[in-house]
Task: inverse folding
């Protein structure tokens, strides 16, 4: 007995068979027969395509190609795709902060209220408090000539708006007493010639026209130790008080700094728990902090900031 090699499947079989038993088994299996028995270990057998396991290389390659294509498409057209996806989203409401007016001209001592619109809580700032200050309500007080920017901001500091403020010197003629107008030429000195007729005594008949309204005094807060006005900060005055008491006075700067009688002055402290002031204008510090002292005299009100 000898072995023959099948020219079709390449298997070796005994010459006692008329044809290759391996091919016969395969043909029977594909024709609906029984699956051929597995060959013994070591027996040669050519593996046909239908006996191979599933091949995942092809599907994996397709997935990789699709992903690469998606990345490339999004890189070039991502913005347009995003706009298309969000085309029906509601338009966000833009919140803005505005200040009215956007610019203002003030005179020293003048106060102007600014209005902020757009947010509920507004914080106010001055770029130069030596020129103008601003309080929590947006009231701007002109301090000295110059230019300053008043800024309104929200609590988070994300929104802001500005008002450009220009401060000029106050007009000395502004608010002049109309009763003092008319001919301002002084009467001739009777000792130097001219009309020497004395004015008639109003109590003795004749011209009973009352004298013009007396001129308003130029008052300022001064210090007792110097007899001079304290440094002015806008329409206020500024003094630093440590532990010792400081005596304040009111002087008439238009009359050689004449000191006003203390009986004519009413003094008041904004916060007596920090700073007190008596009837003679003596200021005494009780605790730290800034307090405003107010003096009322001759129909005028003056303020002194005690630091």
Result:
């Amino acid at each position: 007995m000898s072995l023959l090699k099948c020219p079709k499947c390449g298997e070796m079989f005994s010459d006692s068979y008329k044809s290759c038993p391996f091919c016969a088994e395969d043909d029977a299996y594909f024709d609906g027969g029984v699956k051929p028995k597995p060959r013994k270990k070591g027996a040669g057998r050519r593996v046909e395509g239908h006996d191979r396991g599933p091949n995942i290389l092809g599907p994996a390659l397709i997935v990789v190609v699709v992903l690469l294509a998606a990345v490339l498409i999004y890189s070039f057209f991502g913005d347009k795709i995003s706009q298309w996806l969000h085309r029906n989203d509601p338009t966000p409401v833009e919140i803005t902060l505005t200040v009215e007016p956007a610019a203002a001209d003030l005179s020293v001592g003048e106060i102007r209220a600014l209005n902020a619109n757009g947010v509920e809580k507004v914080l106010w700032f001055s770029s130069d408090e030596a020129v103008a200050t601003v309080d929590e309500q947006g009231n701007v007080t002109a301090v000295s000539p110059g230019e300053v920017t008043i800024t309104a901001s929200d609590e988070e500091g994300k929104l802001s708006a500005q008002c450009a403020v220009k401060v000029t010197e106050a007009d000395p003629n502004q608010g002049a007493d109309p009763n003092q107008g008319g001919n301002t030429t002084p009467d001739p000195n009777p000792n130097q010639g001219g009309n020497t007729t004395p004015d008639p005594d109003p109590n003795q008949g004749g011209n009973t026209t009352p004298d013009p309204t007396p001129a308003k005094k130029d008052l300022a807060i001064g210090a007792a130790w110097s007899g001079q006005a304290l440094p002015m900060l806008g329409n206020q005055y500024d003094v630093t008080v440590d532990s010792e008491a400081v005596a304040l006075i009111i002087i008439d700067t238009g009359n050689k700094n004449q000191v006003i009688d203390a009986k004519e002055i009413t003094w008041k402290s904004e916060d007596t728990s920090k700073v007190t002031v008596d009837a003679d204008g003596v200021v005494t510090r009780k605790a730290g902090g800034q307090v405003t002292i107010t003096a009322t005299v001759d129909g005028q009100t003056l303020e002194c900031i005690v630091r």
